[in-house]
TrEMBL record:
Keywords: Cell membrane, Membrane, Transmembrane, Transmembrane helix, Transport. This is Aldouronate transport system permease protein. It comes from the Bacteria. InterPro entries: MetI-like, MetI-like_sf. The chain crosses the membrane at residues 12-32, 82-100, 112-131, 143-164, 185-207, 263-280. It comes from Paenibacillus eucommiae. PANTHER family: ABC TRANSPORTER PERMEASE PROTEIN MG189-RELATED-RELATED, POLYGALACTURONAN_RHAMNOGALACTURONAN TRANSPORT SYSTEM PERMEASE PROTEIN YTCP. Gene3D superfamilies: MetI-like. The keyword Transmembrane helix applies. The keyword Membrane applies. It is a multi-pass membrane protein.
C-alpha cells in the first residue's frame, strides 16, 4: 500500500528545495559572473554593466592570457607540481596505510607507528621551523619544496588505513594460502577493491596541490618559479601584471581592462579542476564515507 505524503510534508519538501536552489545559485553566481566578465569588453566590465551574460562579447582577454609568458610558465609549474605531488602522495599513502591496517598480531609495533604519524596532526612545528628545514636541505626555489613537505598527508593515510581494515580479511588470508606475499596481496587485492577510496583521496590531492598558493610565495625566491595560484595571488593583490598591457596592439588593448584580465586568468585557473571532478565524482560518492562503516 502506497502512503501519500501529507500537505505539511509536501510544503516542507518544497521549502527545502527552494532554499537549496537559492543556496546553489548564490554559490554559482560569482563563477557565472566571473566568466561573463572575462568574455565582456573592458568598458562594459569597468562600468559594472556585466551581471550574468557577457556584454560586447570578446575573447581578447583569453587571447592575451594565452600569450602571457608569465601566466603560461606558472601553469606549467602547477601541472608539474600536481603530477609529482599527487603521484608521490598516493604512493606514500598506500605504502603506509597497508601495514598500519594490519592487526597487532601481524604487525607487532602497529600502535607505535600509528601514534608516530598521528602526533603530526596534533602538533606542528610551525612556519619558521618548516621554512628553515626547507632552506637547510637545499630545496628552496625548486619544485621539490612544493612537493616533499606534503608527501605524507596523515589525515588521508588514516582514512585509507580504515578503508583497508574494512576489507574482508578472508581475501588476504586466501591469497597468503595460495602463496602470495604482501606486495602481491596489496597490488592485486587491496588496491583494486579500494578504487572508490583511492579516487576520493586522489581528488583531495589534486585539488590541494592545484589550489595551494602560500607555500609558493614562501619557498620560491623568483616569481618565475611561482605556481599558478601564487602567480594569481600576486597579480590580484599586488597588481604586478598591469604593466604588461602596454605590449599589446591597440585593437586588443581597447577591449581589455584589469578586471577582464583577472577574470580570464582566474577562470582558466579553475578550469582543470572543473574538468577533472566529473570523472571522479562517481567514486567520490562512495569514497566520501571512508572508514565510517565497520562490519
Amino acid at each position: 500500500m502506497v502512503e501519500h505524503a501529507s500537505w505539511s510534508r509536501k510544503w516542507f519538501l518544497s521549502f527545502n528545495y527552494i532554499v537549496l536552489a537559492l543556496m546553489a545559485f548564490a554559490c554559482l553566481f560569482p563563477i557565472i559572473q566571473m566568466v561573463a566578465v572575462s568574455f565582456s569588453s573592458g568598458t562594459a566590465a569597468s562600468s559594472g554593466r556585466v551581471t550574468v551574460f557577457p556584454i560586447e562579447f570578446t575573447t581578447d582577454a583569453y587571447r592575451y592570457v594565452m600569450r602571457n609568458e608569465a601566466f603560461m610558465r606558472s601553469v606549467w609549474v602547477s601541472v608539474e607540481r600536481v603530477v609529482l605531488g599527487s603521484s608521490l602522495q598516493m604512493l606514500m599513502m598506500v605504502l603506509i596505510a597497508y601495514p598500519l591496517s594490519k592487526d597487532v598480531s601481524i604487525f607487532r609495533f602497529r600502535t607505535v607507528y600509528v601514534w608516530f604519524f598521528m602526533i603530526t596532526i596534533l602538533f606542528s612545528g610551525g612556519l619558521i621551523p618548516t621554512y628553515l628545514t626547507i632552506k637547510m636541505t637545499g630545496l628552496m626555489n625548486s619544485i621539490w619544496a612544493l612537493v616533499i613537505p606534503n608527501a605524507v598527508p596523515v589525515f588521508s593515510v588514516v582514512l585509507l588505513l580504515n578503508f583497508f581494515r574494512n576489507l574482508p580479511k578472508e581475501l588476504s588470508e586466501a591469497a597468503f594460502i595460495d602463496g602470495a606475499g604482501h606486495w602481491k596481496t596489496l597490488w592485486k587485492i587491496y588496491i583494486p577493491l579500494s578504487t572508490p577510496g583511492l579516487a576520493t583521496l586522489l581528488l583531495f590531492s589534486l585539488v590541494g596541490h592545484w589550489n595551494s598558493w602560500f607555500d609558493g610565495i614562501i619557498y620560491m625566491n623568483s616569481p618565475d618559479n611561482y605556481p599558478l595560484q601564487s602567480y594569481l595571488q600576486t597579480i590580484i593583490l599586488l597588481k604586478q601584471d598591469s604593466a604588461a598591457l602596454s605590449v599589446l596592439d591597440a585593437n586588443i588593448l581597447s577591449n581589455l581592462s584589469d578586471r577582464t584580465l583577472k577574470s580570464a586568468q582566474i577562470g582558466l585557473g579553475a578550469l582543470p579542476i572543473l574538468l577533472v571532478y566529473p570523472f571522479l565524482q562517481r567514486y567520490f560518492m562512495k569514497g566520501i564515507v571512508l572508514g565510517s562503516v565497520k562490519e
